[in-house]
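Limitations

Structures in this collection are predictions, not experimental determinations, and the ligand pose is part of the prediction. Treat each record accordingly. The example that follows, with 3-methyl-2-oxobutanoic acid as the small molecule, is included so readers can see exactly what is and is not provided: the inputs are given verbatim, and the output is the predicted complex.
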Amino acid sequence: MKQVTIDTFPSRKRSGPPITMVTAYDAPTARLVTQAGIDVALVGDSLGMVVQGMENTLSVTVDEMIYHTRMVARGLEGPLLVTDMPFMSYTVSKEEALRNAGRLIKEGGCHAVKLEGGTEIAPVVRYLSGAMVPVMGHIGMKPMNVHSMGGFKVQGRDAASAEAILNDARALSEAGVFALVLEAIPANLARTISQTVPVPTFGIGAGPHTDGQVLVFHDLVGWTSAPLPRFARAFGNVADVARVALAAFRDSVADGSFPAPGESYPDGPVTLPKLDRLKTKRKG
Ligand code: KIV
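Predicted complex:
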């Protein structure tokens, strides 16, 4: 697959086809994402919930993001690799933000970073972009704001909140983001933003009018055990396939049919009695 870069996107925004982005947290998933011809692999901080089993994404660290990015980078060939900057890794100071973004790129191997936040993070986005760090924005429902939002809630439903999100999109675009994720906002607001900003938009729970769509891998392959949010679709049922395989393994071990002769190595020259003699000799 031809390497996707941030330069791939402007023409795709103009004339399609819509851009696809999927989360990946390890090398085998990255290989599947590559084989499927997905445009962007996102090492999302959603790994805190999806992989680590946490209630939200707040505890994820830069070191953990680097660890997972490295794994994804090893399995990926072609898609753009974007990594989330985790909570508090870019808001303390812009120097620290640059240091952390630099680590994700140099140690992790991603091509770009994604930051959640609106107008308030425009200065840090400008600073990172000025230091040649490609930045993807993330507005609307920002999972890092789970406590200040009072839960994971759809945003932009009233006029004031919709206006604020549109302003976020404008401010981030002017600050230099190369793309924007729009999460959990009404479809008409996502359409307005997509028509207003020059950069491509990726929707997740933002309706059909964005320039691309993004989903969490585990949700889309049917691996997530919790009920899916309204906007996610399971296009497969990997969990059921895994359950069937696990039960078959358990039963085959129980009835002795696994491992079969073809799944065992042929006997070698050393027989058990000889081994026993060896042990006795050593003891003596
Ligand atoms: O962390 C994540 O997986 C994300 C996507 C949901 C866009 O930010």
